[in-house]
Every structure is written in structure tokens, then in C-alpha cells.
């Protein structure tokens, strides 16, 4: 998607003065949202209405219309609220098809909600991977070559790669070759999961970059300053390291005592995806009430609030003055919520629609205020004349002067200013860096993440509180994958042995570290809002940063997730054997 193989890898490795390589393994992680997959299907003679927990109402409607040979006008999908998805809740699913067919046959609504076991085994997971990565460099750290071979299994599905992060994070590398293979097994299918492939890829790449820095004899961040072209990540490294106290980091294994402390860092990046099927309608009524409508769904990330903010800002109102109606395909089609694309896709048309409604209102009240519409502005719930002594009228009073009961404007997403890098992909990449401090008990092998500092960008932050919440979630989900989560299959029959939330361990409140978030704003002037999503890049680097911190604490590197006490103790024992201490 973002490059593929380039240059001459064999030549690059011949030119290398230092080579680091390793085999890295990551486990299956299931999505485990609080709300399982489910729907209520109501098939009637005049059409199909489905209340669905989905990340894409418009896409689900298209799928259902095709499946039942119905015009889209006879299919309605409603997702007013939902309890999380993380990438797995696209489409109707086999369970949904069964429910809709049953409703069609019986003529009554049918409700289906998967139980926790079914959620674990049947509707998706982050695939496991085994990858071999090799990096060549000069003695000063200049990259000469990189080679990646990965094998992953998404069970009976496909898409078990490790993303494009090794190809594109360090573009100073002139030679890259990558091979990624899917291995089919008799297990539940994989699905998109918060930056598909990228956390797996970063787990290998960012550990090897740290190993390379150690061999070159420079600090891990200093090497990244040399080999990473991104000016945004350079600034993130600077402010993050200062906030975190990176200068206090000790040499690997130098922490005294049984319980050792370590610091680690890792970087992330994610594409700036845009869904052109993003539209909305803004209405202004004669009583001064404002509403925005779109089929876009809020899966818990706060797009409902963001839309209210965008419309309110354009009209000089408060977000509470705007009624947001979303998650219903009776409204203009909105984007799916995946790939961190929702905010960047739907906020520009929302602002444009609000602007056009505002211009209609200004034209309606300008004659009574004795000025041209161009001399009026929305300020603090009023319409204020720039001249004419600053004459003003309240927004509500102005709306009462409309010649009709309502005015409206419908807008769709347009190309970025200057076009796209590729269709539906903006120029540039979003990313960030996670700094992690851990403690490792060398007698029990227990790893505890004590502190995380994350520095991230997502264009213009519209709702900083929601952004921080998103980043917190990415960090916690990454820690959970790094240390705890693991699907266990019976080797003889392929059954999942821990398909519950008791034996499938997920990070809990006792494992939550102190988290400090830094938002580094970047205005690229590519759209009318300059806003982008954050969900993916907030998750990508976490596990790699944890692994680098564990290495810094104990002086032994862990190449397989999750980093369990057993693996820590085994790694320490093997290290002692190599040193002749046992």
C-alpha cells in the first residue's frame, strides 16, 4: 500500500558493517468488546429494519440489500449507541444473516446477541505472527538494508500480515525486501483490530532498532533522530523524552536489587485514510434549533460530540445547542468507523454544511440589520454587524426571520486541498512515540508497567479530552496484549480453552499505570477542519516500548509475546547459563 520492496537488498547487506536480526513471535488477541456482536432484525413486507452493533451502518445496509435482493430504500440500519468494536464489527456476520432470515420466515422481530464464548471464537481476532527481521547499517548507524519475512495465521481467514511499518517508518533505508504469508489453520477467523498488522510489525522493528543503537554505541533516540525523516516524530521524541525523564535511563540490567526498573521507547505511524462516502445534513429551524444528521456511528470514540463542536463553532453557538442525530441509514450516508478515518472524513462536510446554512441565515437577516450579509458574523450566540455601530441580534431572533420553517444544507466529503497521495489517502502519516517505565521482579518474573508518556499527533485536536481518552485506551490495550492476553487452543481439536473473561486475562484496574499524554498539534491545511483520527497510532508502539523497557531492566531481550513471568524467568536462566553462572 505504501511502498513495498525497493532497492537492492543483497547489495545493501554487503555494504553493511553491522547486522542485527531476530525472530519475533506475537500471539492471537481477541477483541473482547464490552458489548458482544448482536442485532435485532425486523423483516416486514415493506422492508427490513435492523438494529445492529456495527462500525459501518452504510456498509451493512449495502450488504443486506444485496443479500436479500432489496433496494436500499427498503433497508434501514440503526446503531444509535454501541459498546465498542475495535475493528471486528463490520458487516452482518453469519449470525446476523441467520437472524434476518428467521425474521423473514416468521414475520416477527428476531434478536440475537453472541455470548462471551462465541465472541471469542467466531467473530475475529488479531492474528498471531512469526517474523524474521534483519537490518544492516554502517558503523555510524546509517541504514543500508532491511529484510522482513513473516508468517501469520488468521485461522480460516486471511490478512495475517505485519503491516507496512518496516517499509515506511525509516525511509532513509534505501533497500527493503518484504515477504508476508498467510497460514490457514482450523481456528476462528481473524479480523481488523486497531491498526491491523502494525503492532506486530512494530514489536519486531522497534526492538531491532534499539539493538542496532546499542551496537552502534548511541542512545536509542539519537539513532532515531538520524534515521527517521519525520520532523513530527522528531519533535515528539524531544518533548516526550523531556517529560518522561529519558536522560535518567540506566544501562541495560544496571538497576540494582531483585526488582529492577527499566525504561523503553518505541514509535508508531499510521496512514491518513479518508472515506469519500461521508456526508451529512445540517438543519436550522425557525425556533433557532440546529441539528446535524448522518448515518455515521459512534462506537465510543466521541464523534457525536465532535460533530456538535464543529457545527456550533461555525454558527457561533455552544455544542449543547446542536442536536446530533447519527447512526441511522435514513440520514445521509456517513463513513465507517475504522482505520482512524472517521473524524477526518466527516468533519469537513459537517463544517461546510453548517457554513452554507449560516450564509442562508445571514442573507435572511441582513436587510433588517441594514448591512450586507458579508458584514455579519456569528459571535457568542448572536449575529453581529461588523459596522453599523456593532448592531446585533440573537441567533434565535434571527432564525425567526426565516421565510420558511427550516433551511438546510447537505454536503459530502471533497478531495483534500491539493489532492490525495492515493485515492482516499491523505499525504503524510500520523504517528507518535510511547515511553514506558517498568519494574521486573527477577525472582517471580512479574512485569509491571509503572508509567507511560505518550506524544502523539492527529492534525487539529477538536476534542482534547476525548483524544486523551482514545490514547489512554490504545496504551492500555497495548499493555494488555504485551503482558497478558493470549488465546489458548487445544492442540488436538483446535478448540479455544479460555473463551471467557476469567482465564483470558485482560488488563484490569490494578495493572493500569500512570499515563501522561502530550498532544503535538500539526496543521497541514489539507481540509476545512485539519482533523484526523488517533485510535490506531495510539496502540501501535505500546507493546514494543514495553519490550524495550523490560530489556533495559533485566539486560535480556524477550522476543515473544505475551511477556509472561515464565518467559522472563526462562530468559534470565538462559542468560545466566551463557555467562557460566549456573
Rough outline: globular
Number of strands: 21
Q: Main β-sheet, in a few words?
A: 4 strands, mixed
Provide a count of the helices: 15
Helix content: 25-40%
Could you list the spans in which at least 5 consecutive residues all have pLDDT below 50?
none
Assembly type: single chain
What portion of residues belong to β-strands? 15-25%
Query: What distance separates the N and C termini?
Result: 49 Å
Gyration radius (Cα, Å) is 26 Å
Side by side, the strands of the main sheet go 1-8-9-10
Mean pLDDT: 96
Classify the secondary structure makeup into a structural class: alpha+beta
Description:
A 4-stranded mixed sheet has the order 1-8-9-10, with helices on both faces. The longest helix has 28 residues, at 342-369. It contains 15 helices and 21 strands. The protein is 31% helix and 25% strand. The chain is globular. By secondary structure, the chain is an alpha+beta fold. It has helices at 9-15, 57-67, 93-106, 116-122, 165-168, 198-216, 220-227, 231-244, 303-315, 342-369, 395-399, 464-483, 537-540, 542-554, 565-578, and strands spanning 18-26, 29-30, 38-44, 47-52, 75-78, 110-113, 125-126, 128-137, 143-153, 176-182, 259-273, 279-285, 290-294, 322-326, 376-379, 382-385, 392-394, 406-412, 425-441, 447-456, 514-519.
